[in-house]
Amino acid sequence: MGHSVPPLSDKSLLKSQAYVNGKWVDAKSGKTFEVTDPSTQKTIGTMPEMDASDTQAAIDAASAALPSFRKTTGRERARMLRKWYQLMVDNADDLAKLITWENGKPMADAKGEVAYAAGFFEWFSEEAPRAYGDTIAATIPGNRIFTIKQPVGVCGLITPWNFPAAMITRKIGPALAAGCTVVAKSPGETPFTAAALAELAHRAGIPAGVVNIVTAMKNTAEVGETLTSSPIIKKVSFTGSTGVGKLLMKQSSGTLKKLSFELGGNAPFIVFDDADLDIAVAGAIASKFRSSGQTCVCANRLYIQSGIYDKFCDAFAEKVKGFKVGGGYDEGVTHGPLIHDRAVSKVAAHVKDAVEQGGKVLVGGQKMPDLGSNFFQPTVIRDMTSQMSLAHEETFGPVAGLFKFDTEAEVVKQANDTEVGLAGYFFSKDIQRCYRIAEALEVGMVGINTGLVSDAAAPFGGVKESGFGREGSKYGIDEYLTIKMVTMGGMGGELQGS
Which residues are part of the catalytic machinery? Predict the structure, then answer.
């Protein structure tokens, strides 16, 4: 099945190079890697396969740009971010086309991501002038204490393929607002969106060396280690798997970097008997199947109270039957491919394991070779048990496993029975229950009667092995600032001439 790629209105947004020190560059080795369209398996183009020396050049550029950039006022940086935001809005269609091309998500989803991604530049443009310090009353007479917030320095940012635009803006926005310069490693699977954003940064007049984008696929680990071990890099922000996060933390310990990590999740999604069934079903559809299940806050385990279980299973399965799977550009397509064959294999393994242990497939459950090797049917399985792989591992694919439960205490225990804690969702009309459950879930983010919690205004991040630090919101800029305390002595003498 062919999927036609609509041409970009502005062809100059399609870059096949990395962006370092305000210039488009190749890897010093001349090596490149291929990027393929997950829908068709066709090659989109190539990008430079950068290594440690290329990464070091980007770090040096960011370091050279820091002294002047950190001296700019918050208001000046706000205007730069605002310009970059406006350019994203003006080029939203082309950015969405690039996201669909390299990531596979349908155009409607991709357009939503562009708006979400641009929102971080808008949000942090407004935070930039507001990095306030404090004055503090000293305990020693004559001393006066105040604090100022200063940029942490050069930042290394590593982002994943599932949101090619939003994961990068969520990190670069606050870094620039704080007065930091950055070296960002774009994902090997989806580097073209990041390159287009770099082109827009160039047009927005962001000074050379302030934003650097390095590309790599095979050399990803080498690039990562160069960032984590560099004494120039003062902070690393990473979104990705818990396993890689642990490795980066270990590597960063040699230079004691400031870190913020947004790692794997295993989101519980709980529906109580007293929930509004239609709202709960709609929330589950949005949370579970967004980007075909390939987000870290996707519902992974759906717990439905026994009184409403059968009804929910039927209504939910009915909705999933209405999905249209296909290439992201095709008319009416609601769900695209998975990112690569490894993702498909994991999904297939989770379904097989559930079925072998008594799970009943209500919809889907199969690969879709007619569409292409990366397609898997959106799947609903009922009668799940805690022994099944899906109960313990993040599927990162379009499989919804429905577990039955009886009591609050039982479901909270099951929900919390995991090493990770990123997002959790539940549906109930009982206001007291809402407070009880929200406080009892061991996660960094809770959605009550909604399946979508992402908002530039909301602090995003997890607890336990889902990481630490918060992105977006008024707290997001703090990750890129340090607090300096200043004490002035001898300030309290008598007035002269008294």
Answer: 262, 296
Residue appearing with tokens 């560099």:
230
Predicted confidence (pLDDT) per residue in 400-450, tens digit: 999 999 999 999 999 999 999 999 999 999 999 999 999 999 999 999 999
User: Where would I find the H helices in 14-106?
Assistant: 52-69, 74-90, 92-103
**What span, in angstroms and rounded, lies between the C-alpha atoms of 11 and 358?**
52
Distance in Å from the first CA to the final CA of the chain: 92
Residue 485: Cβ within 10 Å count: 11
Long-range contacts of 86-90 (CB under 8 A, 24+ apart): 87/200, 87/203, 87/204, 88/114, 88/117, 88/118, 88/121, 88/165, 88/169, 88/197, 88/200, 89/118
Q: Residue 68 has which token pair?
A: 């002047």
CA–CA separation, 219 vs 349, rounded Å?
29
Contacts of 76 (CB under 8 A, 6+ apart): none
- Quick one: angle between helices 107-127 and 166-178, nearest 10? 10
- State whether residue 305 is helix, strand or coil: strand
Written as six digits, the tokens of 80 are 């730069």
pTM value is 0.97
> Identity (one letter) of the amino acid at 334?
T
pLDDT score recorded for residue 1: 41
Taking each helix axis from N to C end, the angle separating 107-127 and 92-103, rounded to the nearest 10 degrees, works out to: 120
What are the CA-CA distances from residue 84 to residues 90, 92, 112, 283 (Å)? 10, 12, 18, 33
What are the Cα distances from residue 157, in Å, to 56, 179, 211, 235, 260? 14, 15, 11, 8, 10
CA angle 29, 30, 36 (to 5 degrees): 120
Q: Is the pLDDT of residue 464 over 90?
A: yes
